[in-house]
Every structure is written in C-alpha cells, then in structure tokens.
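User: quick one, fold this
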Amino acid sequence: MTQPTPHPQHTALGLAASGVPVLPLRRGKVPFGNCTTCADNACGGRPNMKVPGPCRCPAPCHGWAAATPVPAVIVSPAWATAWRRAVCVAYHPGGAGLTVVDLDNADAIVWARAALPATRTVPTTRGEHWIYRGTMTSRNAVRPGVDIKSTMAYTRWLGPGTGTMAALPDAVRALTVKEPSPAPRTPQALSGLLAGGQGECPHRTPAFLERGVAMAEQRITEASSAVHATVYRTFLAVLSRHGRCGCLTDTHVARLFTAAQAKGETPRHCTDAWANARTALGM
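Assistant:
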C-alpha cells in the first residue's frame, strides 16, 4: 500500500530534530515574501546580495535567512499561514554544515562523475544533488548545469539520498573562484554606436522589436536554474540589440521585469540587473 506523502510541516519538524534549518516553499519553489513589517526590505535587507536585514520578527521572511532548526518557531502562529500554503520544504545547507552540488541535467552528472569525488547523492526532477560535509560560498552557474548551494542559499529537501557523505573537496571549492574580469571596453569600441551617441536603428519594422522582446520574455520564463544569471544575460542581450536607438520603451522593459519577477526575482534585483547591463555596455 502506498504511504501518504507527509505534510511539509511534518517533514520540516523531522529535519529540525536533526538540527537542519528549514523553511517553507510556495508554488514555484520560491520562499514566501517578506512579512508586513519587513515589506520592501524596510528592515534593511539586500535581496540582490541575499543579505538579511537586522529584523528579528518570527515570520518566514528573507528567503534562506528564515531557515530555522527550532521546532517552536516552525509550529508558531507566525508561520502557520506559510505552512498551510507550502508545497514543499527547503533547507539551508550551510546552516547544516553542508554543501550541495546541484547537477541539473545528464551532461552535468557525467561531468561530476569524472571530476568530483563520490559522495551522497539525491535524485532530482532533472538531475542529482551531490552532498558534501563542509561549507563554502554559494554560486549559481559555475559551469553548464551546475550550481553550488551552501552558505546564504537554500535548496529543496528531496530526501536523505544514498551513499556515504564525503568531505567537501578542493575541486568543488575551486568552481566558485572567478577568473579575472577582462578590461572594460570603452563605448567607442562597442558596435552600433555613432559619434553623436545615437545608435543605428536595426528595426525595419515594429515586428522585429516585438519578436526580440517576446523571445527575451520566453528565455526568462523557461529558465530552470541560475535565474539571476539568466535575467542579467537576457537584459544584456536585449539592450545590446535593441537599446541604442530609442525604440525600446518603458512598456517593453516592464514586460521583461514582470517575467523576471514571476520567476521569483525582486523589483530591486531587476533594477540592479538592468543598470548593470547598461553599465557593461557603456550606455
């Protein structure tokens, strides 16, 4: 006889009993929004940097920073609505002294088997989680289909997995070491820029711009991992192709922001990503 799936709160309490910090996730595998007191990060949090503010409210806000191993908090009235609406449980790997290598597809798994020491593995919808003892800086898209979840991050609880958990190897730590950035290009070196600062218009018909914006919306909507990076790269591509001639309007930008926020991005992150893309292009 098939056993019923335990309620997310019951799963969370079981994990908390082992000292694992947990939090509820709503549909789309995203945390619940800030509580009323901390709406729009009034407490001083910086969501684009995943840094919580100084607030001490009991409600499950601030994403990964809401994760708790305290049963009394998990069953408190402040969390009741979140658990009623929760569809699954997440945990803070760094808070549990762990690092998760999130392998998002078959190619990433093949790479990991060749490049990383064997450790405990947990099947996911499209790939596997490889779990190591030890903590490190989290970073998405360290290579195609590979994210690192440890400190200042959360990941979905999918079960205890199989295999013996190994110590965090240097090969995983090295994945988050960024290569030195190339020297910035001057605006004069960018294609499509004229002497007067007006870019040549590539839009022979309105349909060309509409198709470009629609494709960008689709790219963001279909992102299955590394959402932050996907949003930034998409903004960069749109601005590079469509942003120099004045045809791109606030309505087009709002459509892109809406698509990003539907994937869990905050308005502030969207604004920062757009500004960073403009700066990178010398605009």
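User: anything notable?
Assistant: The longest helix spans residues 206-221.
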